[in-house]
Amino acid sequence: MAKYTLGFDAGTQSVKVAVYDEAMQCVAQKSYPTTLTYPQPGWVQMDVEEYLALTIRAARDVTDEMKEKGLNPADIAAVMGDGVICGIAGVDAEGRAVTPYINYLDSRTTEDVEAITAMGLDIWARETGNPQPSPMFPAMFARWFLKNCSEEVRGKIVKFIHDAPFILMHFAGLKGKDAFIDWGTMSGWGLGYKVEEKVWSDEQLEILGIDPKYMPRIVKPWDRVGSVTEEIARQTGLPAGIPVLAGAGDTMQSMLGSGIFEANRGVDVAGTCAMFCVSTKGIVPELSRPGLGLIFNSGTLPDTYFYWGFVRTGGLSLRWFKDNVAQHSESGEHYRKMSEEAAKVPAGANGVLFLPYLTGGTGEEKDASGCFLNMTMDDDQFVMWRSVLEAIAYDYRELAAAYRSAGVNLDRITVTEGGSRDALWNQIKSDMLEATVVRYRNAGGAVLTNALFGAWATSDRAGDVSAIVELLSKAIVEDAEYKPDPETSRLYEKIGAMRAKLIREDMREAFRNLVAIRNL
Fold first, then answer.
1. What is the pLDDT of residue 41?
2. 199-219: per-residue pLDDT in tens?
3. Closest CA to 249 of 297, 308, 214, 319
4. What is the distance between the alpha carbons of residues 22 and 4, in angstroms, rounded to a whole number?
5. How far is 36 from 45, CA to CA, in rounded Å?
6. Distance (Å, whole) CA 344 – CA 452
7. Taking a C-beta distance cutoff of 8 angstroms, is the pair 293, 311 a contact?
8. Residue 273: pLDDT above 80?
């Protein structure tokens, strides 16, 4: 195995870069926040060029940190990263971005989604496992770019690409025509591919009006796509010539980093988009029905699959509250302080409800907006904070019911990524889902997983899938366990039913009126 490997996670709220040694101990790490802009209501834009710049900056920081510790960056043997599976930008012949980067937080394609859904086609579920389109699918973003970009910009687009492949292609000095995508991230497109064959679907792309020439080539996550260039080596301190691997999807790597190697296991990926996933052996018809709102993806490893439901602004709601309401945008430590105080607030948050639809709703609740309900003079920011934490768990509860109805055992659920460090939130989820919640010692499951893949891909057992499973099994260690309290679970069940009725029936007209007010 390699002496050191570098892994990165190009997430929605930050870019994290870390170097791990042969024992998979982190020897250096750095993260930087990303920039999200909101040019219109329901629109959320980012910049893949910023992703690249932040990764280069963080890589330089970690190689400098290694030197300060007496470690030699020249011993780093490979680069492997992951990124957001539901987000793309258009790049030109030189591989530079010519469009904004649009991801799953954006709602601009809602009307187009409704038009495609109205076609009533079954090819989506049959080939992708996803029964209908969603405003968070890159396939819909590609349609939007091709319809709405200027003729000049449209003429420059050579390929559509995700954030991690964009970073990796530039580390390897590739051009636009060389754009690639791993088979897991491919399934993040939502539509346009055959998930089990891991190829683009000409029939779907024709229906969508997307020329296949825009689609990147599909590769295995551990394939070598190139080598670190001399220029990138100069900027980052990495050794020139080391392998650059194709990379993977963030959710896929988080699941592997949570010990999910087999079917019928549950995982809470507590990131920006709070995702509740279950692993399967393939498409499950009961979970691929229209109206459930579940999304089906291919995993990183061969013949692995999973469904996931989501709260689109789950983790982002937490950051929004800390930064904009509590006014502590510079302090990540403030999350812990708020949860310590919120733990003193009774379950149910004194009846205060938070609706986490800060970038709009989806489906029949597309007009939903973020708001706090039922507050009194007795409530403070810690009551509000608890209601924010509970809001995501209430939506998880409905997802759990769908999974269980399809025969999935959810007595034990793994929680990963940054939100897994919050003990109060973990306990709320345990009570809400009536399941034991397990946390592993390494919170950043995806970055560690990437480093493991880098070490494996440069070892004499490269390509032997059983070898990477062995490495992952050794690296993950259980850190904490949270068990449900039956009385609290019953309380959440009652409130959850009333909350669902409020959102789906009682407040529907109010949401429409609020949208009208916002658009005046």
1. 86
2. 999 999 999 999 999 999 999
3. 297
4. 6
5. 6
6. 40
7. no
8. no
Which tokens belong to 143? 């349609």
- DSSP secondary structure letter of residue 37: B
Bridge partner list, 7: 18, 80
Taking CA atoms, 458 is separated from 4, 76, 252, in Å, by 11, 11, 21
Distance CA 235, CA 272 (A): 29
pLDDT of amino acid 29: 96
Q: Provide DSSP, 372-398.
A: EES--TT--HHHHHHHHHHHHHHHHHH
Closest by CA position to 339, among listed 420, 416, 413, 407: 420
Token reading at 504 = 């789906």
Decide if 51 contacts 166 (C-beta within 8 A). yes
Q: Are strands 436-440 and 478-482 parallel, antiparallel or unpaired?
A: antiparallel
> Helices 48-68 & 163-171, crossing angle to 10 degrees?
60
Q: Environment class of residue 487 by beta-carbon count within 10 Å: exposed (0-12), middle (13-18) or buried (19+)?
A: exposed
d(CA 226, CA 245): 7
Give SS3 for 178.
helix
What are the C-alpha distances in Å from 191 to residues 121, 360, 510? 12, 22, 33
Counting residues of the chain whose pLDDT is more than 70, the rounded percentage is: 97
- 2 — pLDDT class (breaks 50, 70, 90): low
Q: Quick: pLDDT tens for 114-141.
A: 999 999 999 999 999 999 999 999 999 9
In this structure, what DSSP letter does residue 326 have? S
Instruction: Go through 489-506 and write b for each residue having 16 or more CB atoms within 10 A of its CB, e for each that does not.
Output: bebbeebbeebeebbeee
CA-derived radius of gyration, the chain? 22
Residues 6+ apart with CB under 8 A from 34: 11, 12, 13, 14, 15, 46, 50, 51, 54
The encoded tokens of residue 78 equal 């490979």
Cα–Cα distance, 486 to 143 (Å, whole number): 48
Distance CA 345, CA 379 (A): 10
Instruction: Report which of 59, 87, 63 is spatially closest to residue 168, judged by C-alpha positions.
Output: 59
CA atoms of 119 and 208, how far apart (whole Å)? 11
For tokens 């079954």, name the residue: 122
Contacts of residue 46, Cβ cutoff 8 Å, sequence gap at least 6: 12, 34, 35, 36, 37, 87, 100, 101, 102, 103
With b for 16 or more beta-carbon neighbours within 10 A and e for fewer, the 152-176 pattern comes to eeeebbbbbbbbbbbbbbbbbbbeb
Query: Tokens representing 105?
Result: 């937080």
